Amino acid sequence: MKRFFNTRDTIVTEALDGFLRSAAGSHLCRLDGYPDTCVIMQREPDRAQVSVISGGGSGHEPAHAGFVGRGMLTAAVCGALFASPCVDAIVAAILATTGDAGCLLVVKNYTGDRLNFGLAAERARALGKQVEMVIVGDDIALPDSTTPRGVAGTVLAHKLAGYGVTQNWPLSRVAEFVRDGVKRMRTIGLALEDCNPYESGRTSRLSADQAELGLGIHGEPGAQRIAMASARDLVHTAADTLEACLPTTVRNTRFALVLNNLGTVPEVEMALLLEAFSQTPLARRVSHVIGPAPLMTALDMNGFSFTLIELDGAITTALQAPAQPRAWPGIVPLGSPAVVPMPHMPDAFPYPATPNPALRQVLERGAEVLIANEVPLNELDGRIGDGDAGSTFAGAAREITAALDRLPLSDPHHLMTTISNILTQHAGGSSGVLFAIMFSAAGRSPEPWRQALRDGLEHMMECGGAKPGDRTMIDALYPALEVLATGGSLPDVALAARQGAESTTTMESARAGRAAYVPSAQVRDVPDPGAETVARLLEGLAAG
C-alpha cells in the first residue's frame, strides 16, 4: 500500500507540528522535548483547576491530541505509532499543566499504557502532585477477558472529565464521575480490513469474503471472523453483539451511541451505517447519538465501532456541554429524519394536446432514426467515452414517442417547452440535460421557431461551456441551426450538420465534455459521438 510519509521515525513529530499549524490545533502548543517528549497542551492551562491528561500510542488520530482544549483534555502525551509514551514524557505533561488542584490521568487499558502512566503518577506524587488515574476498558469483543481493552469509550471519558473541570469540581469528584461513566460504557468494533502500521509488504489477514468482529485498534485479532455481508446485516451483527452484553439491570435505561470511524470508511458509508443502526432492535433503547465521526481510529483500518454509554441526568448534561476541540462532534437526539412536503412542481405537460399530422410524422421519423442508431452510436462513444451516447438519445426518443398524443403539436414554442420538460424528467447523461436547456430557452424565445432554436443553442453553450471547435455536438448543431435560422431547407441543414460532424475527426483533442479527458491519439479520426448523432438525425429527417 502506498502511504504519505517521510520516515517512520518522524511520522509522529511531523504530524503533530502539522496539527498545531492547522485550525484544529492553532490554539494549542507543545512542549519543547522532541523527539522523546511529544506533549500537546493548552497554551494557558488554568492551574487552579484539575488538569486532565490522556495519551497513548499515535495512529489513533484525532485521539488524543485532537481532544485537547477547554471542556476536554488539558494535555495529550503521544507515543510512537502504536507504542506507549515514555514515563518522562508523561511526567513532563503533569508538571507543565498541574497546580494544587491536581491531575487526572485517563488511560486506555493496555499493559504499556497502564505501566507507564502508573509509574509517571507515582513519580509525580513523589514531587508533591495530587494524581488520580482512571483506566478505560470498554471493549466487549472478548467477553471472558478480565482486562478489556480501552477503545472509543476513552473519548467519552475525556468529555466527562473535561466537563467536571469546567464545573470546578475537586479532583476526587472528577475522578469518581469518570469512573462511574466508564462502568457504563461498552464498545464493539467491526472491520473489513485491518490496519497497516507502515510495514512494507504487510497484507490484510482478511480475505475478500470476510469481515472481523471485535478487531482491536492496533489490529489485534477480534472475537471472530464472519462472512462478508450487506451493511445492514453487518450492522445488525454488531448491534446484536453489543446488546447481548448489556446487563439486565439496565433493561429500561436509555443510551447514547457513539458511531466511530476506525479509519478509512467514507463519510457516505458512515452515514449509511447510522441509518442501518436506526433499524436495529437496539436503536429503540438509544436516545442520543455522537457522530458518525473519526474519534479513536486505527490508521487505515476499514471499519467502525459502536459505543454505548448508559445515560442519566449528569452524564447527559456532561456530554451536551460545549467543548473547544473541533474533533468532538457533539451529541444530538437520535430521531427520525426531518421531512417537509415537496413543493408544487410544474406539470410536464402544461399545454393541451393539439394536432399537427405533418409535425407528428417528423417526430416519429426522428425517433426511428435515433432508436435504429442506438447500438452503432454506443460503439462509437465507447471508443472515446463511456459508451452510452446511443442509449441516451434513443431513450429520449422513446419517451417523446410515448408522449405524442399529449403534445401541443400546433404551437412550436409550447411544443419545445414540453419536450424540454420530458427530457428533464427522463433523459439521462449530460446530453439530455443540454438539450433540455436548449428547448426550454427556445420555448421562451419571442423569435419564430427557427430563430428560437438558435437562441436555445446559445443558452446551451452558455450553460455547457462548449463552443464551435471544441469537438462536441455543438460542432454539428451550430452550423445546422445557423442554416435553419436563415431559411435553409432540411437537406441543407443536414449537410451543414454532416460537415460539422466530419470536422471533429481532424480536431486534435476535445476541450469540453467527457472526451476532453481522453488522449489526443485516441480521438484522432473518430467523430464526436454527439455531433455524429445530430448529423444522423438530420440526415434521416431529410431523407424522409
TrEMBL record:
GO terms for molecular function: ATP binding; glycerone kinase activity. GO terms for biological process: glycerol catabolic process. Keywords: ATP-binding, Kinase, Nucleotide-binding, Transferase. Pfam families: Dak1, Dak2. Residues 357-543 form the DhaL domain. SMART domains: Dak2 (SM01120). Residues 7-328 form the DhaK domain. GO terms for cellular component: cytosol. It comes from the Bacteria. InterPro entries: DhaK_dom (IPR004006), DhaL_dom (IPR004007), DhaL_dom_sf (IPR036117), Dihydroxyacetone_Kinase (IPR050861). This is Dihydroxyacetone kinase. It comes from Komagataeibacter diospyri.
